[in-house]
Amino acid sequence: MNRSLPFELVYQLAALIIAVILVHLVFITVVRPNAEAVLAEQTELLAAGVDYAPERSIYVVLKDYEQETCFILMFWSLALMGFKGRSALRERALLQQSIVNVSEGMSILPEDTREYTRPVQALPDAMQNYLLPRALLAALQRFASTRNVQDVSEAVKSICEAESDRLDSELSMVRYIAWAIPSIGFIGTVRGIGDALGQAYKAVEGDIAGVTASLGVAFNSTFVALVISILIMFLMHQLQLIQERLVLDTQTYCDRELIRHMQVR
Questions:
Q1: How large a percentage of the chain has pLDDT more than 70?
Q2: How far apart are CA 105 and CA 158, in angstroms?
Q3: Is the pLDDT of residue 233 over 70?
Q4: pTM as predicted
């Protein structure tokens, strides 16, 4: 398990760098040029005295730095959750296999544990760190040493609970991102309202363009941040559901395929 930590750390850093590069590239080549073109067109029409209602452009809504930061964090969190979800689905696939291969009606005695341990230890190295092989090995080793089925059940339960705590703790970065995105949106709100108040004297003179633009920054940043936060929270809860089912199904697998066959003479 520990051997995967350096790879996971490299993956997280690489995902962040790629998200920053790609999102910033899209913003400077597509979003901001189009937003500037839309705003310039609206300014010309207003200056010409044309009576029209400006359309809400998606480019104008997304053009500010707060929205760009929110999208960077969104894609980074998606990459983190994708990594965790892929790992969980791989482990779930192992639950479809019969590893210990105990036939119906057969009994496992403490003297037989070495024989049933071999198929588990024969799994590829990458799978040795999965929850199911670790739980099966712990169950067999505990049965061989204690010759007590209740102790075996407690050992499996303990491993599954520890794995559940570990999976939950590894989502702390995603939870932080889900909290940080609305906070960044509120920063944009404060910045926009502050700019609007700084241009209040122009509004008194009849020029409300600057105040309107600043208020647009305030409301657009909050709107985008809240929408992204809702999406991230939904996906995070789906990932938690997959991980919780993995732990519960692993415990059920051990009970059904191994523990119920254990007997002591």
A1: 88
A2: 27
A3: yes
A4: 0.84
| CA–CA dist 46, 44 (Å, integer) | 5
What are the angstrom distances between the C-alpha of 205 and each of 177, 200, 211? 42, 9, 12
**Other beta carbons less than 10 A from residue 203's beta carbon:** 15
Q: How far, in whole angstroms, is CA 95 from its chain's centroid?
A: 23
Calpha distance 254→248 (Å, rounded): 10
Contact 261, 116 (CB under 8 A): no
Given the structure tokens 């657009």, which residue do they identify? 220
Nearest-angstrom CA–CA distance, 189 and 178: 18
DSSP output for 191-231: HHHHHHHHTHHHHHTT--HHHHHHHHHHHHHHHHHHHHHHH
Q: Mean pLDDT across the stretch 116-139?
A: 88
Phi, then psi, of 130 in degrees rounded to 5? -65, 160
> What is the pLDDT averaged over residues 213-222?
78
User: Residues 162, 260: contact at Cβ < 8 Å?
Assistant: no
Do residues 94 and 120 make contact, with C-beta atoms less than 8 angstroms apart?
Answer: no
CB atoms within 10 A of CB 102: 18
